[in-house]
Amino acid sequence: MAHGTFNVPYPVNEPVLSYAPGTPERKALQNAYKTLYEQPPIEVPMYLGANRVITDDKRIMTPPHEHGKVLGHFSYGTSEHVKQAIEAALEAKSAWASLGWEHRAAVFLKAADLIAGPFRAKINASTMLSQGKNCFQAEIDAACEFADFLRFNAFYAQQIHQEQPESSDGIWNRLEYRPLEGFVFAITPFNFTAISGNLPAVAALMGNVVVWKPSDTQVYSAQVIMEIFQEAGLPDGVINMITCDGPVAGDVVFKHRDFAGLHFTGSTGVFRHLWKTIGENLELYRSYPRIVGETGGKDFVLAHPSANVSEVVTGLIRGAFEYQGQKCSAASRAYMPASIWPAIKAEMQSELATLNIGPPNDFGNFINAVIDRRSFDKIKGYIDFAKSAPDAEIVAGGGCDDSVGYFVEPTVIETTNAHFKSMVEEIFGPVLTVYVYDDSASNAFEKVLDLIDSTSEYALTGAVFSNDRYSLDLASKKLEYAAGNFYLNDKPTGAVVGQQPFGGARGSGTNDKAGSYLNLLRWVSPRTIKETLVSPRDYRYPFLG
Ligand code: NAD
């Protein structure tokens, strides 16, 4: 037990390094990338308690920008391995849960310092290589956001522990923030190394033990995360990494009595399926499981006629095409006023023509490849559909090339149909669809707000560009439930931990705001303790007299 109450070092966002020519960070990152690229293929094991498990069922890891290059293999596990992961977690539970929270925080604060320091180049290089991010996209994700998550979470954990109830005369009331009774299952997506690390880590910070299943296309950098957690002193069994087919894992986990919570980030369809499965198995569990899921988006950008053309163009290009549009927050539908659309379109077309496309080790490339064959085919399908549709036209990009890597040009579709397929469905690629509204019509702006609010099932991010204060106020009110992260005169991506807590509602998730204290609260089950200092010795109340 601690002999004191402690203050976590006050968290400050990790500075984003520039990687400009001549900087030491650029050289370190180029060297790290070269080392990983040139080393012999690696073998990634599963981390089940103290065991590093390799199986005969191997899966290949290749860079999205060079599918002929083998980075290594990881082992696919069976339901037996999932059971072993759960057993290892439950075995580690008692010691980890009874460790003072400040010790748990110290492990993750150390991990944050390792990420920001000696592991920075390695975790960035592995993210560039295996997930196809350019150096800036890797830096804001794998280094900065990941370190921020860990540091801010530790600070929020302290604040939560300090939150205590009132006490009255002769009574001391206390609140204990117990970890959940059982284990937490973390399932993570391919697109953010920081999310992959944070989902298991935040639950573990609050005293839980975790079974973690990364995405098949993120295993390469997931191993670096495990290496960092080990180096930071995370005891074996607290976070167990399994690599296997999702349904195989789900079939064991969701039937286990000690399943206590799901921490999911990924697509909406998968999340709904998991929630239903959990619902069907409710009688099997000791407690009602916590279900936290951050899922898909169909994020919008709206311009008012008063908006500045270059600001809109910059917001659209950065918002829609950074990391090839593979961000849940990426702009993918835009509503542009007819009066300024010709100017926006012309400027966007000429700016898009300056974007270089290619592998991330060439730092001049803004656009890299999309994650895998499945994704390439899906995105190409939407582009081909638009090419042949009578109510749509490709006004920029449209080219796809999978000969060496999965490259898709940043593509802009202009449609006259506000409910065109690509205005409604999540594509998760570098495709922006624009609907031009007639801003000379009466109540045009108000009507387009209703259209935005009702077009998609998602409500993750959205942005409004305007220099008219009344229109910003109207948009903020009418779009109150259309986005969990709402931007005024800025692109809808790039949320920073501690500054813009992230998450959406409706089809986009449970909105438990990763990177805020709200998320941490989902991983504890508080116990109230009332202690009476001098207990009464007579049952008779005064009114009985
Ligand atoms: P995905 O849904 O295909 O996969 C996510 C994870 O779920 C992977 O680990 C996958 O293996 C696993 N999975 C799939 N089916 C499963 C099953 N039946 N049982 C158990 N696990 C299963 O998503 P993805 O392609 O990796 O990521 C892209 C999606 O994630 C997009 O929809 C994007 O919007 C969303 N996303 C949302 C946020 C957010 O904060 N809202 C952040 C990042 C990504």
Short description:
This protein has helices at about 25-40, 80-100, 100-115, 120-130, 135-160, 195-205, 220-230, 245-255, 270-280, 310-320, 340-350, 375-390, 420-425, 445-455, 470-480, 515-520, and strands spanning about 40-45, 45-50, 50-55, 60, 70-75, 170-180, 185, 210-215, 240, 260-265, 290-295, 300-305, 330-335, 390-395, 400, 405-410, 410-415, 430-435, 460, 460-465, 485-490, 505, 525-530. It is of the alpha/beta class and about 550 residues long. The strands form seven sheets. It has a seven-stranded mixed beta sheet, sandwiched between helices. Strands 9-8-7-10-11 form a five-stranded parallel beta sheet, sandwiched between helices.
